[in-house]
Specification:
The structure is a homodimer of 224-residue chains. Helix content of chain A is 42%, strand content 24%. Chain A has 8 helices and 11 strands. Chain A has helices spanning 4-12, 21-29, 112-119, 123-149, 152-164, 176-182, 187-199, 215-222; strands at residues 31-36, 41-43, 51-57, 60-65, 71-77, 82-83, 98-101, 105-111, 169-171, 203-206, 209-212. Chain A has a 4-stranded antiparallel sheet. In chain A, helix 5 packs across helix 8. The first copy, chain A, starts with a helix and ends with a helix. Chains A and B meet through helix 4 of A and helix 4 of B. The first copy, chain A, binds a DNA duplex (30 and 30 nucleotides) through residues 151-152, 175-177, 185-192, 194-195, 207.
Amino acid sequence: MITAAHSSFIQRVHLFNGLQQQQFDSVLQHCKIMSLQKDDVLFSQGDMMSHFYLIYSGLVKLYRLSADGQEKVIEIVTPGQTFAEALMFLDRPDYPVSATALNASEVIVFESSSFLKMLAQSTDTCFTLLGQMSQRIRGLVQEIDNLSVQNGRHRLSSYLLDQAGESSHIRLPIPKAVLASRLSIQPETFSRIIKQLKSVQAIQVDGSEIEILDREQLEEYAMV
Amino acid sequence: MITAAHSSFIQRVHLFNGLQQQQFDSVLQHCKIMSLQKDDVLFSQGDMMSHFYLIYSGLVKLYRLSADGQEKVIEIVTPGQTFAEALMFLDRPDYPVSATALNASEVIVFESSSFLKMLAQSTDTCFTLLGQMSQRIRGLVQEIDNLSVQNGRHRLSSYLLDQAGESSHIRLPIPKAVLASRLSIQPETFSRIIKQLKSVQAIQVDGSEIEILDREQLEEYAMV
DNA sequence: TGAATTTTTTGATTTCAATCAAAGCCTGAG
DNA sequence: CTCAGGCTTTGATTGAAATCAAAAAATTCA
């Protein structure tokens, strides 16, 4: 059941900003709330796609499984973020990743067929979507660059700086092994890089709580 | 100068398929032909973006330079392909890659501001663009997966099978070092993988001419 | 609370690919 | 035809991270 809280949450999401009241109402009519327990699978790689999603609360990981069962986390999706919406525009869309809740989560599920109909009436929203996808492409290109020419320490340092923002404190929202996969490193290597960052006094760690001690040092590692 | 040949070439490109005659004419009025010599730089990473491009003939490489001068080729663009069009929808768009002609090339240059105006009138073309960008995203995700969980031999084998298609013959259109960078491997490693593929009789090589001898074997390598 | 499970860390070793160095090889300009 | 300068290959070595194995720490839950 969609509550007023959900509705105003949806309204504040960028993708839905440009909609007129009537269009927004139509969107509301074609969405539903879904509650997920930790480890619930929302969809699997290869499934036909008919809906897209917005996280209301919790965390969802998007990942690919290789034939030998190895899991590569492509993205961790957080509240306010939509995902799988790009697939709407493909002919025979199937999910290129699997999605699993990392903890108890609420996601809002949108019917893509009805959203598409509405979209044909809203050039504004088309442009919003084009902009969003463009940024996504940019991020992925950046990521490919990182993977090709940078090492694990670089990726982890960048991640820490990015998460910290202004603050110097970070609480890792996910298990270290999941973050490791997101950064394309093995858990053991992750642990060793953390150890090294501690040994040069760049950070201080207590479980999932990380304190940045020497920002310059981290920026050094995150550079080139 | 836009010739009739150029015009009909443009018309056959997917992106422009859904345009009405009048819209198409407006597009034609706001584009120009540009001739590039080998190694001419079309734009550099960080430049402000105001145009997007369609290759008419030749080849253009899109790549990123790291601070230490290392070059990572993100994509090789071929005739009929557009590039940089995704940037139109960003607020302050700057090119995330550099573009250089790999040989004498002709590219068609479109003014993004006028294209955007026209686009607001053509929902069809918006959808085409959304579809194209969606596919691009899918390809990039695939690429990230390849880089994270697969090795160089996998990537090279996949590339060969992909290039070959039905045929069993491939002519490499670009220097091996450029292809190596595209596949995120060093030229030396590239050469060694080729050597290995020859040694197991999977392929036969004469300069840039490659013959696939044992497709099954290559598929084996390209798998998982 | 305490056993059981999961997560994280540490240690030893291996592996794939990068790097450094140099030799062949082509190609195209003179 | 030939020689200079770019590609490409080969060889030797190094290095970063994966893998294998196991201990330690943290969590869960009975």
